[in-house]
């Protein structure tokens, strides 16, 4: 009888242990969440962090400045237009990133013509963090291809902006970009030279990798 009881106990243990291990292995793993602030240092953007941003929103032609006359002129463009861009940044020191941006801006004129601008920029950004929020002032410089009907031009451009993001997950942030940018159009006749001022407000989705 004792031998029978010992055999039954051994059999139950032999079946229970593998079942327990199988249940543990089959348990779904938890999705990674954003570390709490005490797990981050002052700025979680260490060297090598990559950010790929997709931006879409509104384009606001503001005014042109004529240097020879010292006067501001109306752009004769309808407000708002549309703006879109893709940008890439990589942190090179903690909280500081460099990269680039390509995009496009479209606006109609009162004369029923269409202005299209395609900026190509080198960018630098400073990244400040107060989880789950992130704040990024940015400076960009480069050139833009400008086309109005059959007329086209390549102009230097300077872009200043700030971005506000909410870190939704480890991989994604969502937020708003506000930018002010200026370009110079220079001709052989100085009287035709103009400096343009434009604004942008775009929604952004940022992928971190």
Textual characterization of the structure:
With 209 residues, the protein is mostly beta strands. The chain has one domain: Porin. Helix content is 12%, strand content 59%. An 8-stranded antiparallel barrel has the order 1-3-4-5-7-8-9-10. A hairpin with a 2-residue loop joins strand 3 and strand 4 (96-108). It is elongated, with a radius of gyration of 28 Å. The N and C termini lie far apart (65 Å). The model is unreliable at 1-9, 11-24 and 35-41 (pLDDT under 50).
Outline:
By secondary structure, this protein is mostly beta strands.
Largest sheet at a glance? 8 strands, antiparallel, barrel
Average pLDDT reading: 83
pLDDT under 50 segments (min length 5)? 1-9, 11-24, 35-41
Number of discrete domains? 1
| Secondary-structure element pattern, one letter each | HEEEEEEEEEE
User: Could you name the CATH topology?
Assistant: Porin
Strand content: over 45%
- Assigned CATH class: Mainly Beta
CATH 2nd-level architecture = Beta Barrel
């Amino acid at each position: 009888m004792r031998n029978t009881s010992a055999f039954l106990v051994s059999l139950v243990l032999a079946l229970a242990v593998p079942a327990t291990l199988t249940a543990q292995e089959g348990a779904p793993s938890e999705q990674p969440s954003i570390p709490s602030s005490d797990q981050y240092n002052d700025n979680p953007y260490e060297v090598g962090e990559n950010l790929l941003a997709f931006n879409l929103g509104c384009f606001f032609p503001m005014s042109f400045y004529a240097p020879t006359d010292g006067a501001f002129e109306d752009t004769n463009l309808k407000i708002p237009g549309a703006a879109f861009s893709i940008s890439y940044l990589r942190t090179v020191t903690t909280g500081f990133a460099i990269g680039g941006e390509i995009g496009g801006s479209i606006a109609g004129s009162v004369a029923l013509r269409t202005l299209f601008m395609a900026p190509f920029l080198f960018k630098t950004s400073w990244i400040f963090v107060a989880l789950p929020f992130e704040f990024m002032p940015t400076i960009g410089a480069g050139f833009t291809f400008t086309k109005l009907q059959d007329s086209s031009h390549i102009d230097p451009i300077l872009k200043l902006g700030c971005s506000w993001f909410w870190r939704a997950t480890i991989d994604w942030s969502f937020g708003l970009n506000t930018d002010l940018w200026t370009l110079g159009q220079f001709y052989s006749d100085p009287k035709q030279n103009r400096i343009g001022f434009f604004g942008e407000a775009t929604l952004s989705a940022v992928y971190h990798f």
